[in-house]
Amino acid sequence: MALAAALLFGITTLGITYQDFNKRAIHVLLLVLLFGLGIWDAVLLERSISEMLFSLSFVVTILTFMTLYLRVKAGYWVNPLLEHLGLGDVLFFIAIIPLFNPHGYMWFFITGLLSCLLVYVLLKTKIGKDSIPLAGMLSAYLLGLKILDAQLGISVFNLTFIS
To answer: pLDDT confidence of 147, banded at 50, 70, 90?
Structure first.
């Protein structure tokens, strides 16, 4: 059962990466599947709802401060989902919450965004667009972390999914 779940996790994260890079959009079923796998894992690991709500509050706080920053910068209210961040990116942040404890989620969020920025700067000419396929890059990063965990036994950020 764990092998089937791990394969489904790999296919889902690769699907998110492929769609975000090629279409700059992610099908909602991939995000629902990723969230479902995470919930299944959270139940098996007896992860508490309060941990997941704490991580959700972290995302909401980040989005709130981003909105306030854009308000000050532009001089008027700006919806970050229209120009700066895609809805799929936000839904991806929410979908992966059950995969981590709060501390691990915050570290994944921070290092993932820094990694995406670095990759984008290095590959900007190959990507060819001014937007960053954030959910796709983070999905690839997440899969890479899971492979490190599975192959080398290195559990980065307490990612204990399908052990």
So the answer is: confident
User: Does 153 have pLDDT greater than 90?
Assistant: no
- In sequence order, what DSSP letters do the residues of 67-127 get, joined into one string? HHHHHHHHSS---HHHHTS-HHHHHHHHHTGGGS-HHHHHHHHHHHHHHHHHHHHHHHHHH
Q: pLDDT, tens digit, for every residue of 55-95?
A: 999 999 999 999 999 999 888 888 888 888 889 999 999 99
Contact in structure between 9 and 16 (CB atoms under 8 Å)? no
User: CA-to-CA distance for 158 and 149, rounded, in angstroms?
Assistant: 10
Angle (CA) 128 134 138, round 5° = 125
> How far apart are alpha carbons 50 and 48 in whole angstroms?
5
Task: Please state, in angstroms and rounded to a whole number, the distance separating the CA atoms of residues 34 and 96.
Answer: 7
Q: How many residues does the chain have?
A: 163
8 vs 40: CA distance, rounded Å: 13
Which helix (H) or strand (E) element contains residue 24?
A: none
Q: Is the pLDDT of residue 113 over 60?
A: yes
